[in-house]
Specification:
Layout: H1 2-30, H2 38-52, H3 60-68, H4 78-91, H5 99-116, H6 122-140, H7 143-152, H8 164-180, H9 198-236, H10 243-258, H11 293-306, H12 314-332, H13 336-352, H14 355-366, H15 371-396
Length: 399
C-alpha cells in the first residue's frame, strides 16, 4: 500500500515535470538565442544547490549509495531542486536528459515518506528502490524496465527479492498515473526481417557483434569524457557553484565555433523551427541522421552533465546510440531501424552498467514478438558481457 502511494505520487510529479519540460523546450526552439544565457542558468542552478542543496549534489549516486546503506537518508528537498535545475538547463539548450530528474524525484519522495513513517533498515531501502522503479517507469513508459533498473542500477551485492513486490506496485502505478495525467511516450517499431538464409543470418549477427562492440566502447567513452570534464573543473575551480557556469560557457563557445545546434536540448522530438535536425523521431528512417550526430551529442552531453548542469543522461545516451547505429547501418549494410534500435538501448546499458535493464527496455519499447530483435539484443548482451570481463581483467592488472 505504501509503495502504491509512493508510485502514484511519483507518477503525478513526473507527469508535471514532463509537461513543464515540453513547455521550456518549445520556448528554446522558438528562441534559440537563449543558449547564450546557459552560463546564467548554470549560475542560478549552482547557487541554488550552494544555498539549499547541501548533501544532494551527487544526485542519482546519492540514492544508490543510500540503497546500499540501511541507515542512509535522501532529503526531500532534492525533488524541487533537481526539477528547477533541469528546467533551467533545458530552457537554455543544455544537452541533458530527463531520467535523472524523475529518478531523483522518486527517491526524494521515498526518503521523505520513509522518514515520516519512521522506517529504517531494509524497509527504508525497499522504499528507495520503489521510488527508483516508479520514477524510471513513469518517465519512459516502461514499468518493467523500471523494476529491473531499481535492482540493477544501485549495484548492490545481491538483489533483495523482498523488495520485488513494492517495486512492481510502484512502477506500475507510477506509469499508470503519469499516463492518466496525459503523458504520452513516443512509439518505436522495428520492421521484421524475412526470407533470410542461414548463411545470411550468421553473417548479419557477426556484423551485429561488431556493432555491439562499437556501442559498448561508445558508452564507456561517454562515461570517461563526462568524468574527465568533472575532474578538470573540480581541479581548477574550487567553488562548486562556478563549475556549471564554466560548463555553460564552454558549450556556448563550442556551438559558436562549430555551428552545431542539432545536438542541443533533449533530442527526443522534432524541432518545428529546424525540421532537418536529427532527433529520436527521425533516426529510425533512412537519411534521418548525419554521420557525426552521435559524436556531437556525446561531447555536448559530457560538457553539460560533467560540469554540473542539472538533468539526466539516459535520453542523450539513447540519442547517441541510435544515431551511431544509423551511421553503422550504412557501413555494415544492415537495416537502419534494427541497428538504431539496438544502439538505442546498448549504449545506455554500457554507459550505466545496466545490461539487463537495457535488454528489458529494448523489448518493452520495440515489441516482444520480433525474433530478430530478440537475437539482436542477445548479441548486444554478449558484447556488453565481454567488455565487462575485459574491463575487470584490466583492473586486476592495475590498468
Amino acid at each position: 500500500m505504501i509503495a502504491g502511494l509512493l508510485g502514484t505520487a511519483t507518477g503525478g510529479c513526473v507527469a508535471l515535470f514532463l509537461w513543464l519540460l515540453q513547455m521550456v523546450t518549445m520556448v528554446f526552439w522558438q528562441f534559440p538565442h537563449l543558449l547564450y544565457l546557459l552560463p546564467v542558468a548554470g549560475l542560478i542552478s549552482g547557487l541554488l544547490y550552494q544555498w539549499a542543496g547541501h548533501g544532494v549534489e551527487r544526485g542519482n549516486r546519492l540514492i544508490f549509495e543510500q540503497i546500499r546503506n540501511p541507515d542512509g537518508l535522501v532529503p526531500l528537498r532534492m525533488a524541487p531542486l533537481v526539477l528547477a535545475g533541469t528546467l533551467l538547463t533545458h530552457l537554455c539548450g543544455g544537452s541533458a536528459g530527463r531520467e535523472g530528474t524523475a529518478v531523483q524525484m522518486g527517491g526524494s519522495l521515498a526518503g521523505g515518506l520513509g522518514r515520516w513513517l519512521r522506517f529504517s533498515g531494509a524497509r527504508r531501502q525497499t522504499l528507495l528502490q520503489s521510488g527508483l522503479a516508479g520514477g524510471f517507469g513513469a518517465v519512459f513508459g516502461t514499468p518493467l524496465a523500471g523494476i529491473v533498473y531499481a535492482f540493477e542500477a544501485p549495484q548492490t551485492d545481491r538483489w533483495r527479492l523482498q523488495a520485488l513486490g513494492p517495486c512492481v506496485v510502484a512502477a506500475m502505478l507510477g506509469h499508470l498515473t503519469a499516463t492518466a495525467c496525459g503523458t504520452t511516450h513516443a512509439t518505436c517499431s522495428i520492421a521484421d526481417i524475412t526470407n533470410t538464409s542461414a548463411s545470411a543470418w550468421l553473417q548479419m549477427h557477426g556484423l551485429l557483434l561488431l556493432a555491439g562492440v562499437a556501442f559498448v566502447l561508445t558508452g564507456r567513452l561517454y562515461v570517461k569524457a563526462s568524468e574527465n570534464v568533472g575532474r578538470v573543473l573540480n581541479h581548477w575551480i574550487q567553488r562548486s557553484w562556478l563549475r556549471p557556469v564554466c560548463g555553460g560557457l564552454l558549450l556556448v563557445l563550442l556551438v559558436s565555433i562549430t555551428g552545431q545546434t542539432e545536438a542541443l536540448g533533449l533530442g527526443a522530438d522534432c524541432n518545428p523551427w529546424q525540421p532537418q535536425a536529427t532527433s529520436l523521431a527521425t533516426v529510425f528512417t533512412p537519411g534521418g541522421s548525419g554521420w557525426s550526430s552521435w559524436w556531437w551529442k556525446l561531447i555536448f552531453t559530457a560538457l553539460t552533465v560533467g560540469s554540473g548542469l542539472r538533468g539526466g543522461e539516459v535520453t542523450p545516451l539513447f540519442y547517441i546510440g541510435a544515431t551511431l547505429g544509423h551511421s553503422l547501418s550504412r557501413l555494415l549494410r544492415l537495416p537502419v531501424d534494427l541497428l538504431s534500435g539496438l544502439g538505442f538501448v546498448t549504449v545506455f546499458g554500457a554507459a550505466l552498467r545496466v545490461p539487463v535493464t537495457s535488454l528489458v527496455l529494448g523489448l518493452e519499447l520495440f515489441g516482444w514478438r520480433d525474433v530478430e530483435l530478440w537475437t539482436g539484443l542477445i548479441v548486444m548482451q554478449v558484447a556488453q558481457r565481454v567488455a565487462a570481463g575485459w574491463r575487470r581483467k584490466q583492473q586486476r592488472r592495475g590498468f
